[in-house]
Amino acid sequence: MLRIALTKGRVEKKFIPLLQRCNIDCQPLIDKQRRLIINLGDQYQIILVKGEDVCTYLRKGAVDLGVVGSDVLEEQGADEQVNELLDLNTGRCQFIVASKSDFDWNQPRRKVIGTKYPNVARRWFASQGEDVEIIKIAGSVELAPLTGLADAIVDLTETGTTLRVNHLVVHDWLDVITSRLVANPVALKQKRDEIFTLTNQLRQAMEEEYDEDLRKVTE
Ligand SMILES: Nc1ncnc2c1ncn2[C@@H]1O[C@H](COP(=O)(O)OP(=O)(O)OP(=O)(O)O)[C@@H](O)[C@H]1O
Ligand SMILES: O=P(O)(O)OC[C@H]1O[C@H](OP(=O)(O)OP(=O)(O)O)[C@H](O)[C@@H]1O
């Protein structure tokens, strides 16, 4: 049986249709209620975790595979215990730098940046030659410039709605984020066939989805 740490929430919701396309019955996952370990037939066991915890489970060998946003991988940094197998092209969103529209980016003082992603934010501003003060925030990051806690934020945007309704504007567009399938290197050796079978099924499911979308646009 393959054990998979799946990021609960948005990543989970967008991963389920891909699993279904692989002819894996996902009803136990859809009907899970408060259960955190869900078996899909006798081949897959899904462990529902926070995105930040996926690689911890993987590194310690508590799971064989993980499904996690590339935002989390970027924040946590490269790790030889975490092998990326596939870009699932779901859970698409983008890192942005945003501020109030009247914020003067040219002023010389050290800027204060609120974010859930301190490493990503520090790296980005360093690449722009700016040393900034970072304030780590757990959620509702858009509040930081609105309340005077920070000058600007580094956060994710998808539809742009949260920025728009809170009157923030994008100053810089950073990396596009998608969900990734990651593996523990020991599992990759020990369960090679099962892992490659699932990876190939997922790749084919993605191609089918792409073809279907293309047909919808061109018909
Ligand atoms: N609009 C979006 N905003 C935030 N994350 C998104 C968005 N779209 C896709 N994602 C992906 O979903 C993951 C977060 O999922 P979700 O927002 O359900 O969890 P959360 O519990 O609110 O976040 P956290 O674990 O940081 O508290 C991100 O790591 C990212 O890869
Ligand atoms: O561009 P949009 O489609 O509006 O999506 C972006 C928003 O969604 C996420 O927040 P989330 O809902 O996860 O709340 P949180 O900040 O409290 O984690 C993200 O941090 C943005 O605030």
Automatic annotation (TrEMBL):
Domain ATP phosphoribosyltransferase catalytic: residue ranges: 52-203
Kindly state one GO CC term assigned in the UniProt record.
Answer: cytoplasm
Q: Which GO terms describe its biological process?
A: L-histidine biosynthetic process
MF terms (GO), sorted A to Z = ATP binding; ATP phosphoribosyltransferase activity
- Which EC main class describes this enzyme? transferase
What is the role of this chain?
Catalyzes the condensation of ATP and 5-phosphoribose 1-diphosphate to form N'-(5'-phosphoribosyl)-ATP (PR-ATP). Has a crucial role in the pathway because the rate of histidine biosynthesis seems to be controlled primarily by regulation of HisG enzymatic activity.
SUPFAM superfamilies documented for this protein: Periplasmic binding protein-like II
Q: Which Pfam families match?
A: HisG
Q: What is this protein called?
A: ATP phosphoribosyltransferase
Q: Which InterPro entries match?
A: ATP_PRibTrfase_cat, ATP_PRibTrfase_CS, ATP_PRibTrfase_HisG, ATP_PRibTrfase_HisG_short
Record-linked NCBIfam families: hisG (TIGR00070)
Q: In which pathway does it act?
A: Amino-acid biosynthesis; L-histidine biosynthesis; L-histidine from 5-phospho-alpha-D-ribose 1-diphosphate: step 1/9
- The record's EC number reads 2.4.2.17
The encoding gene is: hisG
Q: Organism source for this protein?
A: Limosilactobacillus mucosae LM1
Keyword tags: Amino-acid biosynthesis, ATP-binding, Cytoplasm, Glycosyltransferase, Histidine biosynthesis, Nucleotide-binding, Transferase
Instruction: Give the primary localization class.
Output: cytoplasm
Similarity comment text for this entry: Belongs to the ATP phosphoribosyltransferase family. Short subfamily.
Its UniProt domain note says: Lacks the C-terminal regulatory region which is replaced by HisZ.
